[in-house]
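Dear Dr. H.,

I hope your travels went smoothly. While you were away I took the liberty of generating a structure for the chain from your last submission, since the lab meeting agenda had it listed for discussion. I wanted you to have the full record in hand beforehand rather than looking at slides cold. The sequence, exactly as received, is reproduced here:
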Amino acid sequence: MGTGDLAEDEKCIDTMYKCVKIFVLEQLSGLLEISHRAMMGEYVLYYRGRVIGGIYDDRLLLKLTKAAEEMIPDAEKETPYEGAKEMLLVDVDDRETMTRLIEAMYPELPEPKKRKK
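The corresponding predicted structure, in token form, is as follows:
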């Protein structure tokens, strides 16, 4: 599918990742306190200030929690990058399940670390 022009192909891939980010954030728009931060070419997702997972390449991966594994026990587990902990691969087309899943995960997620001044 590539154009043969490496710079052009990279531009297309970058645009695709941004489209995936926009779609995922739209799907999560029912959660009022969702935010994200670009980090090393990927996007880390936060809910009420706690890291819930991220958008890695074109995949939504959420942290493994007991609640998440109970809600979607058949979800595939993948790593966002080599050496990282496994995370749950989530179907981004099911808005209601994603919303319920993140709300159920929230109490199990660690609070953000206090930054030293």
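Two observations you may find useful: The chain has a mean pLDDT of 85. Residues 6-27 form the longest helix (22 residues).

With kind regards,
E. W.
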